Amino acid sequence: MPVAHIVLSPFDWSRARAADVITLDHDARHRRRISLVADGGTAFLLDLPRAAVLRDGDALQLEDGRLIRVAAAAEPLMHVAAGSSVGLARLAWHVGNRHLPAMIGDDHLLLREDHVIAAMLEGLGATVTYVSAAFTPEQGAYSGTGAHDHAPAQGQHHHHHHDHAH
Questions:
Q1: Which pTM was predicted?
Q2: Contact 71, 24 (CB under 8 A)
Q3: Does residue 150 or residue 38 have the better pLDDT?
Q4: Of 24, 50, 36, 46, nearest to 135 (Cα)?
Q5: Domain named UreE urease accessory N-terminal: which ranges (predicted)?
Q6: What is the 3-state secondary structure (H, E, C) of 70-137?
Q7: Cβ proximity of 63 and 1 under 8 Å
Q8: Angle in degrees, CA 96, 102, 105, rounded to 5
Q9: If you ran DSSP here, which 8-state letter would residue 160 be given?
Q10: Less Cβ around it within 10 Å: N or C end of the chain?
Q11: What pLDDT does residue 141 have?
Q12: Exposure of 101 by Cβ count < 10 A (0-12 exposed, 13-18 middle, 19+ buried)?
């Protein structure tokens, strides 16, 4: 079985080179090591040095040089809107305070479908509608870039200390 050890960002490869496509939902795109079968039938082992978030448009490079394009699957989401930009910022604050992954648009948020969160947001004045779309939430300030190697330069240290006390 071919093995993929390398993830290429959409800027580092041409989509025309894709030998196959693998469509994964948000949870399935957070991986380190797993056997997968691409949409066209290519079986391979994903074996990364560390767990990573695979982004829509990334490519997994197999040892034989073939590239498997990563596609974000459509999944059930909530489209959250407010009557104003201040209202949307307030809703985003409440979502962030709960550490929920979110996609941020010009005039809306996209969140995973959750009826408890929907009721809370509606109670805060939001308009919530249900949609099906690819979910590629913000990575967060401390997440780096997921699968892409950004090792510290020689002599530099890279530490994360988080205090999420409320």
A1: 0.75
A2: yes
A3: 38
A4: 24
A5: 3-68
A6: EEECEEEEEEEECCCHHHHHHHHHHHHHCCCCCEECCCEEEEECCHHHHHHHHHCCCEEEEEEEECCC
A7: no
A8: 110
A9: -
A10: C
A11: 66
A12: middle
Q: Which residues pair with 111 in a beta bridge?
A: 78
**Sign (positive/negative) of CA torsion 44, 50, 52, 58?**
negative
Report yes or no: 79 and 32 within 8 Å, Cβ to Cβ.
no
Collapse the DSSP code of 44 into the 3-class scheme (helix H, G, I; strand E, B; otherwise coil) and give the result: strand
CB burial of residue 2 (10 Å; 0-12, 13-18, 19+): middle
- What's residue 153's pLDDT? 37
**Rounded distance between C-alpha atoms, residue 156 and residue 24, angstroms:** 35
Q: Which amino acid is at 157?
A: H
Q: Which helix (H) or strand (E) holds 61?
A: strand 59-62
> Which domains, and CATH codes, for the chain?
3-72 (2.60.260.20), 74-134 (3.30.70.790)
Place of tokens 């066209």: 40
Q: Which two tokens stand for residue 130?
A: 């249900």
Question: What pLDDT digit, counting tens, does each position of 40-84 carry?
Answer: 999 999 999 999 999 999 999 999 999 999 999 999 999 999 999
Contact between 56 and 71 (Cβ < 8 Å): yes
